[in-house]
Amino acid sequence: MSTIILGIESSCDDTSAAVTRDCVLMSNVIASQKVHEAYGGVVPELASRAHQQNIVPVVSEAIKQAGIQRTDIDAIAFTRGPGLPGSLHVGTAFAKGLALALDMPLVDVNHLHGHVLAHFIKETPDAPVPDFPFLCLLISGGNSQIIKVNAPRDMEILGQTIDDAAGEAFDKCAKVMGLPYPGGPVIDRLASEGDAKRFRFAKPHIDGYNYSFSGLKTSFLYTLRDAVRENPDFIQENLPHLAASLQKTIIDILMDKFTRAVRDTGITTIAIAGGVSANSGVRAAVQDYARRHHLRAFIPKPRFTTDNAAMIAVAGHYKFLDHEYCDITAPPFARVVI
Ligand code: KG4
């Protein structure tokens, strides 16, 4: 007997629905919200309104593309948190309504577990997946964590950011340079044409496997402020070099703690996940490290790095197999880890 899961993701500014059969992808529909571009960041109220408009057509399309009937679904998995409260409410309410209407089990998923389990989305039935335990560097707009993954539902956080996330460092520094939101992909593109050794920015000294990115942001801001006083065109003239130097600093900070955790634990399978794992420099650094140390590295396809419901369906699949269902009265959680 195979297990078919409908996944629903609405934690931030992407409305997504996906169908998996035993973790093999049958459909993954994502409606990204363009409405935020004019504001330089996600506007929560606009995000929840857009989710309301998108959720019915997105779920219908995912079921249609999967080539199944609604009654073929075994369980509905949805992102319960963390994320924007209004956005989470739309997905949560919709998932509950559908589960009630179809008389189906409901499974709540921690968005961050979803990102890690994106490595178990199979595009073909025999696609390779990580063996356990593996170490995952989860880097997104809201989180930077080093996670020891013992089993699909057994994860230990070894270290995490004490202030900003890696994605915030990209986005906030991009904003200072006058680049559009989200700045991460723009910096990635610019960095390929710049000299990463041109500028140096502060690196944190934090205990253990924890991260900090707020000092880098301040150091970046002060460097630019002082330089622009001398030359008002400084940013424009140095854009690719600033992007390359910033990206290199963020990668160095990430790799310093991640490689230390790999060394200390002796774990030989590593992975990256989350929006920032789409960064070409991060991907190359992890691949290069794995090659030099004879490790197995799992680098997600770019479309599975950002928010998507396929990863929620896969995380829901494992929870469903353990018969862990969500109560129909369960509220979404903006921050709490479930
Ligand atoms: O995981 P995600 O889609 O959203 C959550 O935080 O849940 O991650 C979004 C973050 C943004 O900060 C964005 O700038 C960053 O991922 N990002 C990148 C790249 N693509 C997306 N950062 C650096 N390089 C990229 N290519």
Low-confidence parts: none
Q: What percentage of residues falls in helices of 4 or more residues?
A: 40-55%
The main pleated sheet reads as: 5 strands, mixed
What is the number of helical segments per DSSP (H or I, 4+ residues)?
9
Topology order in helix (H) and strand (E) letters? EEEHEHEHEEEHHHHEHEH
Determine Rg (CA atoms, Å). 20 Å
> What spatial order of strands do you see in the largest sheet?
3-2-1-4-5
Tell how many strands the DSSP assignment holds.
10
**What small molecules are bound in this structure?**
5'-O-[(R)-(carboxyoxy)(hydroxy)phosphoryl]adenosine
* Helix/sheet category: alpha/beta
What does the model show?
This protein is of the alpha/beta class and 338 residues long. It has helices at residues 44-66, 85-102, 111-117, 166-176, 183-191, 214-230, 234-265, 280-292, 309-321; strands at residues 4-9, 14-21, 24-32, 75-81, 106-110, 134-139, 144-151, 154-160, 269-273, 296-298. The strands form 2 sheets. Strands 3-2-1-4-5 form a 5-stranded mixed sheet, sandwiched between helices. A 5-stranded mixed sheet has the order 8-7-6-9-10, sandwiched between helices. A hairpin with a 4-residue loop joins strand 1 and strand 2 (14-21). Helix 3 crosses helix 9. The longest helix is centred in the C-terminal third of the chain and has 32 residues, at 234-265. It is globular. The relative contact order is 0.18. 5'-O-[(R)-(carboxyoxy)(hydroxy)phosphoryl]adenosine binds at residues 12, 140-142, 167, 170-171, 182-185, 188, 274-276, 278-279, 306-307.
